[in-house]
Structures are given as C-alpha cells and as structure tokens.
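Data deposition worksheet. Section B asks for the primary sequence of the deposited chain exactly as it was used as input, without tags or linkers unless they were present during the calculation. Section C holds the resulting structure in token form. Section D is free text for depositor observations; keep each observation to a single sentence. Incomplete worksheets are returned to the depositor.
Section A, Depositor: J.P.
Section B:
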Amino acid sequence: MVSLVAKIKNQFSGIEPITKKLSFSHFLLMFGYKLFSLYFPLFLIWKGLSFTQVGYTYLFIYLPLAFFSPISGFLCSRFNEKILMLIGIFGYFLYSLGMILNVDLFFFYLFQVLLGISASLFFVSSRSLLISLTKKANESFAWFYSMPVYAEVLAPAIGAFLIWQFNFIGVFIFSFAIHFFNIFYSSKSLRKIKNFNRTQPENIEKIKKDYSSIFKEIKEKEVALLLGLVFSTIILTGFYRAFFVLYLKNQLLWSQNKILLFISLVSIVFVVISWKLIKTIGAQKSRTNVLQGSIIKSLVTIVLGVGFKFLTFNSLFIVKIVERMSYLMINSGRSGYFARKFKKFPEEIGAIDTLFIPLGVAIGSLAGGFLLNFFSFAVIFQWFGIFLLISTILVWFLIRRG
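Section C:
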C-alpha cells in the first residue's frame, strides 16, 4: 500500500505546475457540471417542457458553443487568457444559479446560451494558456483532457443521490457551490502564473490560404466520406444526449430512481473500461476506429429501437456500455485522423473541430425534438440505426474501392 501511494505521488510530482493548476480547475468545472448533465433531460420534463422544447434547450447550449469558439480565439489574441478563463467559470456559476431560480422560458433559454458561451471561453482560453506556457505539451494535454473522465467517476453518482434526496434543486445548489469554490481556487492559482509574450497574429491572407488548403483536402474522396460519416454519428449523439434518459422514462417506463441508478452505474463502470479500450484504440488506424465505432453504434441503436420490449436492466446496461465504447472509438478516430491529415494547420483544424461536434449535437437534439411529435423513441432509434449502418457499409466499400 505504501509503495502504491509512493508511485502515485511520484507520478504527480512530475507534472508541470501550470498543468496541475489548469487541470484541477478543469476537473472542478466538469465535476460541477456532470453532477446533473446526464440527468438534465429529466429536469427539463420535470419543468414541464415538451420534447420540442427539450430539443431547443440543447440547441441553445451547443450552437453558441460552436459559433462563439472562433470569437473566443480572437479574444484570446487580444486580452488576458486568465481573465477570460475566469469569466468562463463565472458563467457556469451563474448558470447553476439560474437553474435554481424559477425563471420563465425566455430567461431559461438565455441561461443555456450563457452556458455555451462560458464553455467556449473556458476551453479556448485554458487551451491557449497550455499551448503557450507548458514545456511538455503532449503530457499536459493528456492530463487536462483526462479530467472529465475522473469527474465522471463520482459526479453522476453524487448527483443521483442529491436528486433522490432533495430533487433537482439539491444538485444545482451543490453544483453552484463547486463553481463558487472553483472561482476562488482559479483566481488564486492563476495569479501565480506568469504572463507570456504574444507573437503577432497571422495576417488575413495567410489564414485564408491555410483554410483554402484545408478545404481542398477535405474535398478528397476518403476525407469527405469519413467526415460525412462522423458528422452523422455526432447528429445521432445529439439525439442520445437529449433524449436517451427520456427513452428510459417514456418508452421503457422506468422510474426516476431506477434511471438515476442506471446512469450512475454506467458512468462508473465505463471509466474503468475506457482505460483498457484506449490501448486498443491507440493500436489501430484512425480510419479503422471510425468505421468500427460507427458499425457498433448503428447496431446498438437498432437494438434500442427493435428490441426495447426485451431489454432488462442488465441487458440494457451492457448495450449502453457498448454504445459509449463506440462513441470513444469514433471521437478518438476523428481526432487522430485530423491530426495526421492536417498536421500543417493545427490552429485552423482545431477551430473546425471545435465547430464540428457542438454543431452536430445541436442538429441532432433539435431534429429529435421535432421528430418525437410524430414518431416514438423506438422508431427513431431503429431507422437512424439502419441509416447509419447502411452509410457505414457504403463508406467502407467506397474507400476500399478507391
């Protein structure tokens, strides 16, 4: 036991101070958010929103996140990133306060927009600080981006307990407290981080030339096919994110407590599985991860649509774990493919990638809210799964043929 503690202490002692501070701030931000994020659709229905309004809610979160990211990048080139990062955390703090208050629908949607903009400010500014100040970029970003995984070990379980005991008001109060502490911690720790000398921003002509080169490569057959397939899976992810827990509630007729237990258990178990899965993903080509992940996700989605009458707690637990594995494979494959294909344009492709995911999630949640006025959850899962399966096979065939 002493030996294990010594190894852990030794591993953390090698992390750069800037990485420790930014990563812990990221952990607190994600912990405060993930306390309720997986159960958020239940909260929306509890507030009396329709399926269409649930779709609008996710649209108002992810669309501002997508389109404000380039603006956040511009602000980072003109202002102090430390201040922008704190403003982002403060936005999460205000968001939790807004969810505690019983505001009308207009202001409720306004708080969703605030969340999207705040997320954009935090992630763009913290990424800029890491890029500019760290000496071990790969290691630093590995620690930084692993924080949501660590937050997900406990946050959903604690959130489920708080909702069970105090309803949703309890989980938002605790989230509010976490973000308040993060503001205090980050303002104190960031004060000790030295400023860095800015380089002159690239001229407009060079930026236009770089984007022109990127879009020229995107038009290539393999790149276009894979990105189109990935975007389809992200749209489906938007439907999952907004409506999966409502599928459990309305289609499978599960109680709220059963849903809380299910989601918290899936989150805890998947964290352990993901550590093993990452090794497999790293040993495969990016294209292979995207295609395999898409096949798995399509089959799982078809099962949710066709076999919902036969799904028990245990069988659905396995199905959901497999679905999350497919999501990790697709995301890792996409990022790896971008990194290899567009190695010469890291900033530009990073901006495009930032737009890519929230835009797809926004479309998927909005489309789901509209379609649920005419079809059941099972029917939408079934036909979207079939569409994704056919698309994946077609893309695989066309790439192999090419």
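Section D:
The chain has a mean pLDDT of 84.
The chain is about 85% helix and 0% strand.
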